[in-house]
From TrEMBL, chain A:
Database matches in InterPro entries: MetI-like, MetI-like_sf
Name the record gives this protein: Cellobiose transport system permease protein
Lipid bilayer topology: Multi-pass membrane protein
Domain ABC transmembrane type-1, first and last residues per copy: 75-265
Subcellular location: Cell membrane
Protein species of origin: Sphaerisporangium rubeum
TrEMBL record, chain B:
Cited Pfam families: BPD_transp_1 (PF00528)
Stretches assigned to the ABC transmembrane type-1 domain: 87-305
Keyword Metal-binding: no
InterPro entries in the cross-refs: ABC_transporter_permease, MetI-like, MetI-like_sf
Protein name as it appears in the record: Cellobiose transport system permease protein
UniProt topology in membrane: Multi-pass membrane protein
Any one of the GO BP annotations: transmembrane transport
Similarity-based family: Belongs to the binding-protein-dependent transport system permease family.
Alphabetical UniProt keywords: Cell membrane, Membrane, Transmembrane, Transmembrane helix, Transport
One GO cellular component term noted in the UniProt record for this chain: plasma membrane
Keyword Transmembrane belongs to the record: yes
Automatic annotation (TrEMBL), chain C:
Entries under Gene3D superfamilies matching the protein: Periplasmic binding protein-like II (3.40.190.10)
Pfam family, one: SBP_bac_8
Record PANTHER family: ARABINOSE-BINDING PROTEIN-RELATED, SUGAR BINDING SECRETED PROTEIN
Organism: Sphaerisporangium rubeum
Origin: domain of life: Bacteria
Name of the protein this chain belongs to: Cellobiose transport system substrate-binding protein
Length: 280, 317, 420
């Protein structure tokens, strides 16, 4: 983060803070409201004027969430899926990014173009045949049905390619080659340590995306013990009647792990998103 | 969300490492490194896509017969009011969620890009909170806030003596509701992308402008916007691809009218229409034809964007 | 690559046709465990728990997939390829599409359904009989019909509260709407939750033929009985007696808790819904007869997919729980009405009283509503037709549609949907 490039000069006007505070309120309020409703019961949630302070019902509702759907199991499932996808993407994209950035091989440009084009393929539209493939592999109702397709990330390959191009000089690679290291060794000893922060952010973004994915798990998963957290929330809203407090409580509990994660690594996430961005 | 423009990723081959002797494994290595991506994409991206084109030519009952009918699905589709309704809704929701998002992100990036701003990290982090909240949870919360009889927002509207607004039931209301969710989710993320771009603008330019007597507003118009142009084009590209496939929000916003998002399909998007025909009506062939139409739409949109992003040169000083 | 894609497509096309082969059940699990998909909101867990008491050696893996329609959708996906359950509950409206493709299900005659067939209401079981004569589902319950009303709110509005007197208020639907007007005028509150399911769905299920004639030809657009039911819905909208809350929505269940409307159309399976939704209103409800007398809304069937790994265990469950005595016992516990007329006169059934509904004799109320019933044919597109009629009424109710054009709008929507 350089500060040399910011708008210079004059003091920050008070309305700048006012507007930013408003934006922060807009970003955070829905989560706060989720918590408020999660601590009252539905009748209270529909009282007007509404309650705006949390009630004392949170643990009662949380307990209901845990008894209505296998919530602990679904948190574990989501963790397994999201962590595997995050870590897998970080490594696979770094490898592919390294190949595209630093290695010469026949068809490289064409293949890179193909990677670009894959980004424009809307995955949702082929959900029916995708489901058939999964069933042909006998993967329905398994976590690998979520993990394996989630490992391919064209955007991540670009991201890593760009980082490796700018962070690693050819001289270093050259020196390693002269020392007789194989390409594989060069990647693990020289390249990966240097781009680890970027790979970490990429993994984080992959983690968040996988954690919040809805449509694909919704189609693939059937057994309660396989649910991810998002599907568990959906299951909380049974079709006939919904207890709003219960749904909000589930939503809040499903978001909580990410909030905790965010408190610890949010700074790096912000920095990473900004760092991977366009540099004009 | 990509962060570099594909179009500008022209490749300058690095000098080949002068290897004393090239091992076969080293020659094959790059292929091995990119193989996982291509293998996974082939199985879960490409084959399903090709298969979609194939199924679209059939009257394909997933639990019954498959009858080859050629282009019939497409002729039916182009005469189907529900299809054009879904196209209209998709484009309308895309527009409503992107214009405000762009405007807010520009404004916020401009505000955050101040050298003496305090609590900068806190502000930036808060902006990302919606991004880590899942769509399912977002839909539940916003549906409550926007509810006709018991919603927080309508309570406020009522306080001012106005009639409660039935968001989900009206065309505009439901589009606005979904657009609000999308905007809420992505504005912060986009802001950070813009902010990063802004910070790459040399300070001297602003200083020179200030010396010439340009105020904040003119600096914003003549320096901020032009220097952000590439990233703006880029966010439009990605949000197009994302926006054309919007599914979860409309699915969850109106749960009682399963898969149609309301009594008169007022917010049924293309993907939701596809899902309804495929998994609701058992018409895999027709659903696949919708998929093909959606694919072509994305290709056309992405193509236009691709063309634009190669035409517009970054305002690099 | 091309060859690989080609062969993969071929494999897919085949798996699309036939699905992966069933595979042989593992020795240990055979007959000792089975997978069961049901829907939420009908307390299926209790049934399964009861069965386990009887058969502690059997493991039942119950999944509540979602709503009735979602469950049918999940079943379709599973049948199209993937792991199928051994036993699945299918709601009556979703059944015809499956009956048209009987090759996806075990013909229950092979397991002994022939012998049981006569136990069930003829018009109910006949809906699960395919063209080739195979029986793909055993009926678990029928709706029956009644009106649930809040005695405390009726009292406030100056209306009678005794169930017989209340039933006398509305011999016809027109009288029902008039009563609603009185209630709304007296209290300023809505009388019924909505016009679509509250009135149209009830009235249209009391007809002699619905959307298809007995020969199976669609008559949704020219059947005067359907039109009459539709007009009743519009009439209720015009009378402004509805709360305009879609059944089963979040706001609807909040409305029940808060007493925002006094009346809900209540087929027998709705009783459990009300109890779950608003436990605090216990004792404030009572049940009156439905206007127009006999009718049925809802009911479900248990089926066994062809590729099920444990069809025997699933069949044992069906034959044990869906016998006349099994259904009777289920009724006394959960309130959904048996499909086995032999128990309708059983004192165990006629004496059932429901404390939540002010000790209403639910056994007699619901069986009476079925006995005069003239069954009608449900066709493959009945569900879609009903939904589109409902949508048209809802659209007027929400102030978006023109009542004069609603009927034509519904017909157009149906034609588009069924490709006719």
């Amino acid at each position: 983060m350089t500060t040399t490039n910011r708008r210079s000069g004059d003091r920050v006007r008070w309305w700048t803070y006012a507007l930013l505070a408003l934006a922060v309120f807009a970003c955070v309020f829905p989560l706060y409201w989720m918590f408020v409703v999660a601590t009252t019961d539905t009748a209270a949630a529909t009282e007007l004027p509404p309650e705006i302070v949390p009630g004392g019902n949170f643990f009662h509702l949380a307990e209901l969430v845990f008894t209505t759907v296998p919530f602990v199991q679904s948190i574990v499932n989501s963790l397994v899926v999201a962590a595997t996808i995050g870590a897998g993407q970080a490594v696979l994209c770094a490898l592919a990014g390294f190949a595209f950035a630093k290695l010469r091989f026949r068809g490289r440009n064409v293949l890179l173009l193909v990677v670009v084009l894959t980004m424009t393929v809307p995955t949702e539209l082929a959900i029916v045949p995708r489901y058939m493939i999964i069933s042909w592999l006998e993967w329905t109702d398994t976590l690998q049905a979520l993990i394996v397709p989630g490992l391919a990330n064209a955007f991540g390959i670009f991201w890593m390619r760009q980082h490796i191009s700018s962070a690693i000089s050819d001289e270093i690679l050259q020196a390693a080659r002269i020392d007789g290291a194989t390409v594989w060794q060069i990647f693990w000893r020289v390249v990966f340590p240097l781009v680890r922060p970027a790979a970490f952010v990429l993994g984080l973004l992959g983690f968040v995306t996988a954690w919040n994915d809805f449509l694909w798990p919704f189609v693939v998963l059937k057994s309660p013990e396989m649910y991810t957290v998002q599907i568990a929330i959906k299951a909380l809203q049974n079709s006939f009647a919904i207890d709003l407090g219960l749904a909000m409580s589930g939503s809040f509990l499903a978001t909580l792990p990410l909030i905790v994660l965010f408190v610890f690594v949010g700074r790096r996430m912000v920095a990473g998103i900004m760092d991977g961005a366009f540099k004009g | 969300m990509t962060t570099i423009s594909p179009a500008r990723a022209t490749i300058t081959p690095p000098p080949a490492p002068a290897a004393p002797r090239r091992r076969l494994t080293d020659i094959l290595a790059p292929y091995a490194y990119i193989a996982p991506f291509f293998a996974i994409f082939a199985v879960f991206g490409l084959i399903p896509l090709l298969f979609t084109f194939y199924v679209a030519l059939f009257d394909w009952n997933p639990i019954g017969d498959h009858v080859f009918i050629g282009w019939d699905n497409f002729t039916r589709l182009f005469g189907d009011v529900r299809f054009w309704n879904a196209v209209r809704n998709t484009i309308s929701i895309w527009f409503l969620s992107n214009v405000p998002q762009l405007a807010f992100a520009l404004l916020l990036a401009h505000l955050l890009n101040h050298v003496r701003l305090r609590f900068a990290v806190f502000f930036r982090m808060s902006m990302l909170v919606p991004y880590i909240t899942s769509v399912a949870a977002t839909a539940i919360v916003f549906s409550q806030i926007f509810d006709r009889d018991y919603g927080l927002l309508n309570w406020l509207i009522g306080l001012f003596g106005f009639e409660h607004i039935d968001f989900v039931q009206s065309v505009w209301g439901s589009h606005v509701l979904i657009a609000v969710m999308v905007t809420w989710r992505w504005t912060g993320y986009t802001t950070l992308l813009y902010l990063a771009s802004l910070q790459a603008v040399p300070r001297g330019i602003y200083e020179a402008a200030a010396v010439d007597g340009a105020g904040t507003w003119r600096q914003f118009l003549h320096i901020t916007i032009p220097s952000l142009r590439p990233v703006i084009v880029f966010t439009i590209v990605t949000s197009t691809i994302y926006g054309l496939q919007i599914f979860t929000e409309p699915l969850l916003v109106s749960r009682t009218t399963l898969n149609t998002c309301g009594a008169v399909r007022q917010c049924q998007t293309l993907t939701l229409f596809l899902y309804e025909q495929g998994f609701g009506q058992f018409e895999f062939g027709y659903a696949s034809a919708i998929g093909v139409a959606l694919f072509l739409m994305v290709v056309v949109f992405a193509g236009i964007n691709f063309y634009l992003s190669t035409r517009i040169r970054p305002g690099r000083p | 690559m091309v060859a690989a894609v080609g062969s993969a497509l071929a494999v897919l096309a085949m798996s699309g046709c036939s699905g992966s082969s069933g595979g042989t059940p593992s020795e240990s699990a055979a007959g000792k465990s089975f997978e069961f998909w049901s829907f939420t909101g009908i307390n299926q867990k209790a049934d399964v728990a009861k069965y386990k008491e009887k058969r502690p050696d059997v493991e039942v893996k119950l999944t509540e997939v979602g709503g009735a329609t979602e469950t049918a959708q999940a079943l379709t996906t599973a049948l199209a390829g993937g792991k199928v359950p051994d036993l699945v509950l299918i709601q009556g409206d979703n059944l015809p599409k499956f009956v048209q493709q009987p090759q996806n299900f075990v013909d229950l005659r092979t397991l002994g359904a022939d012998k049981m067939k006569s136990d069930y209401l003829d018009w109910v079981i006949s809906q699960s009989v395919a063209k080739d004569g195979s029986i793909i589902g055993i009926p678990t319950d029928v709706g029956g019909m009644a009106v649930a009303y809040r005695t405390d709110l009726f009292k406030e509005a100056g209306l009678p509260t005794d169930r017989d007197e209340v039933s006398k208020l509305w011999p016809t639907w027109d009288a029902f709407i008039e009563t609603g007007k009185k209630y709304t005028a007296a209290t300023g509150k809505a009388f019924i939750d909505n016009a679509g399911t509250g009135i149209f769905y009830q009235a249209v299920n009391q007809v002699s033929q619905k959307y298809y004639d007995p020969a199976g030809n669609p008559v949704y657009d020219k059947n005067p009985e359907v039109k009459a039911a539709f007009d009743l819905g519009l009439k209720a909208v015009a009378a402004k007696i509805t709360a305009r809350q879609a059944s089963f929505s979040d706001a609807w269940s909040a409305g029940i808790k808060k007493g925002d409307f006094a009346v809900i159309a209540a087929p027998s399976w709705m009783l459990g819904q009300l109890k779950d939704n608003a436990p605090d209103t216990k004792g404030k409800w009572d049940l009156a007869k439905i206007p127009g007398g006999a009718g049925n809304w809802g009911g479900s069937y248990l089926a066994i997919p062809k590729r099920a790994k444990n069809p025997k265990a699933a069949w044992e469950y069906i034959s044990s729980t869906q016998s006349p005595q099994g259904q009777l016992q289920h009724f006394t516990e959960a309130g959904s009405l048996p499909t086995t007329p032999s128990v309708y006169k059983d004192p165990k059934l006629t004496s059932v009283k429901e404390p939540f509904f002010n000790d209403a004799p639910i056994g007699t109320i619901y069986t009476d509503s079925l006995l005069g019933l003239k069954p009608f044919l449900i066709g493959p597109d009945s569900a879609v037709m009903g939904q589109e009629f409902l949508n048209a009424i809802t659209n007027v109710e929400q102030g978006k549609g023109d009542p004069a054009k609603a009927w034509d709008a519904a017909l157009t929507a149906i034609r588009t949907a069924i490709g006719g």
